[in-house]
């Protein structure tokens, strides 16, 4: 069965979230026995070396994709485009980071156990018992810990679609998770590549396959789908070098109706006045029109190219999306890729058959089909108790009634504040089978207020959808450290529930299908980090009113948070 290991803190996940959560806990508790478990064979999560490939680019920019205590060296010019850069530099940065932080004679890397698949998590005698299995052996390990930090991420476990006939298929079937470590682009035996899915990962694999000289087909799902992703030019305007820099300003954040960005005279003017909503609608319509014009979806002579056009306006974010790092992306697809719209019937030995009747020669099938929840080591009952997504049918009548009442009240408040959210366009909406996340501040289970909570032993880091995890997990880690140590006062559980209900109902209204899980923050990064720091009464990330509004948020803006936090909450640089 393996051994039993007692630790003070156990972290599940060695990606961006787990690395910084462990680092900050050890900053404030350097003598802690802390272990990090990860199911992969290398650290970095989405950005690890196994999943990367040379032409994989980030969606964030130089100076924003780093932690505040350690700048990332600027990549060489050939690896930078409009300040976006190749993902391998984030991979190297994270590896350097775990090697350069040491506590009580152990680096962060020394504390990581790789290929450790968490099997179960149980609450026992006030602590947590976690059973993990070594992925390459039958050996199991049992960890007993007083505090548990869950940082398993949203993109850890591949979602492979049902593929009837797969056993008889002679080619390779790969998820985007394995694309970087495969030989699919270099193998002479793989001549015909078919890519499934309409999101950014699928688009990247299609583009790279064409550039590798393969014959490429792109299959978009025909039914029960929010449609293909919205792909935008990364170019900036005015003083901003790129679109990401614009999105990292507080001014830009106010151009979306969001409860996270504060309700004041300016946001009321933009979203509640007579002319403000028209101005905002015109702004988003211009962004939408520009993106569709640049893509030229209606170009002549290209079969089904128009099928890449998003089904909903960009404002509503009902589909996936991303920034393009290749200026020739759409022309490359139009000139070299056959596009199909249909649902899969089966795989044959060297063919993918669609229900539409199309038969697509295929030696390699690449799946950009998303991810399964990474919290499968919790039972359905645990998910319900902790505030994690769980089957709605498993809720008791009283629980359903309780949350329905809270959400009905919250929905009225959302629509009174942002009336434009009441009338979304007619689009496909994913069916709701599971509850949304119901974590307070998106990190902790609902719990009793005050310092002496009955249980402050578990937190969740990085379980939200944002464009840049570095500042988010930095603020989450600081907040949860104060929480786990009982130094952070919380409102009453009734107020926590109202806060959760307000966010989840707003999220469904604002982001439609993408908002069902209640953890989407496409435009809320700054508002969210501000909220966490406001809870802690910390303001080190502020730069003065003018720069706060018009300047992008950089990693260095958070540089003095650690010292400010430790002084305010009575931490020392020595072990307690």
Automatic annotation (TrEMBL):
SUPFAM superfamilies: FAD/NAD(P)-binding domain (SSF51905). It holds the Pfam family Pyr_redox_3. One of its GO terms (molecular function) is monooxygenase activity. Gene3D superfamilies: FAD/NAD(P)-binding domain. InterPro entries: FAD/NAD-bd_sf, FMO-like. The keyword Oxidoreductase applies. Keywords: FAD, Flavoprotein, Monooxygenase, Oxidoreductase. The keyword Oxidoreductase applies. It comes from the Eukaryota. This is Dimethylaniline monooxygenase.
């Amino acid at each position: 069965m393996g051994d039993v290991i007692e630790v003070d803190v156990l972290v599940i996940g060695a990606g961006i979230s787990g690395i910084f959560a462990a680092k900050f806990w050890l900053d404030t508790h350097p003598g802690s026995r802390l272990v990090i478990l990860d199911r992969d064979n290398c650290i970095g999560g989405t950005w690890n070396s196994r999943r990367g490939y040379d032409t994989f680019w980030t969606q964030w920019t130089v100076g924003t994709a780093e932690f505040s205590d350690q700048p990332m060296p600027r990549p060489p010019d050939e690896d930078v485009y409009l300040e976006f850069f190749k993902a391998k530099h984030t991979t190297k940065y994270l590896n350097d980071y775990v090697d350069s932080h040491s506590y009580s004679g152990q680096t962060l890397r020394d504390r990581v156990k790789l290929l450790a698949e968490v099997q179960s998590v149980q609450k026992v005698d006030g602590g947590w018992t976690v059973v993990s299995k070594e992925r390459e052996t039958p050996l199991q390990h049992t960890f007993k810990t007083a505090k548990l930090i869950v940082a398993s991420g949203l993109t850890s476990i591949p979602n492979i679609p049902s593929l009837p006939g797969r056993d008889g298929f002679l080619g390779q079937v790969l998820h985007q998770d394995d694309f970087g470590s495969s030989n699919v682009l270099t193998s002479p035996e793989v001549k015909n590549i078919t890519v499934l899915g309409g999101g950014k990962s699928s688009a990247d694999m299609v583009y790279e396959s064409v550039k590798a000289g393969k014959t490429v087909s792109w299959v978009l799902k025909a039914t029960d789908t929010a449609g293909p992703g919205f792909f935008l030019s990364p170019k900036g305007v005015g003083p901003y070098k790129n679109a990401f820099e614009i999105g990292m300003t507080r001014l830009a954040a106010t151009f979306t109706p969001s409860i996270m960005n504060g309700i004041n005279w300016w946001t009321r003017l933009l979203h509640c006045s007579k002319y403000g909503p028209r101005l905002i609608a015109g702004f988003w319509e211009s962004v939408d029109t520009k993106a569709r014009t640049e893509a030229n979806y209606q170009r002549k002579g290209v079969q089904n190219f128009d099928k890449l056009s998003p089904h909903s306006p960009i404002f509503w974010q009902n589909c996936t999306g991303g920034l393009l790092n290749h200026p020739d992306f759409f022309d490359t697809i139009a000139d070299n890729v056959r596009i199909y719209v249909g649902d899969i019937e089966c795989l044959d030995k060297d063919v993918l058959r669609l229900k539409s009747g199309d038969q697509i020669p295929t030696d390699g099938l690449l799946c950009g089909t998303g991810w399964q929840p990474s919290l499968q080591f919790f039972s359905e009952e645990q998910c319900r108790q902790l505030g994690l997504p769980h089957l709605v049918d498993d809720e008791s009548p009283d629980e359903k009634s309780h949350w329905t009442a809270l959400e009905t009240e919250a929905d009225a408040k959302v629509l009174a504040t942002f009336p434009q959210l009441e009338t979304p366009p007619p689009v496909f909406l994913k069916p709701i089978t599971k509850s949304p996340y119901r974590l307070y501040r998106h990190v902790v289970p609902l719990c009793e207020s005050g310092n002496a909570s009955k249980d402050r032993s578990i937190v969740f880091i990085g379980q939200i959808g944002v464009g840049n995890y570095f500042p988010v997990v930095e603020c989450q880690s600081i907040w949860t450290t104060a929480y786990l140590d009982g130094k952070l006062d919380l409102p009453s559980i009734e107020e926590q529930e109202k806060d959760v209900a307000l966010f989840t109902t707003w999220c469904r209204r604002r982001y439609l299908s993408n908002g069902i899980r209640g953890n989407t923050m496409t435009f809320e990064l700054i508002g969210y980090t501000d909220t966490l720091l406001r809870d802690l009464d910390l303001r080190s990330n502020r730069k003065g009113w003018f720069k706060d509004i018009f300047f992008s948020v950089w990693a260095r803006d958070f540089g003095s948070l650690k010292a400010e936090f430790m002084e305010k909450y009575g931490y020392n640089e020595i072990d307690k």
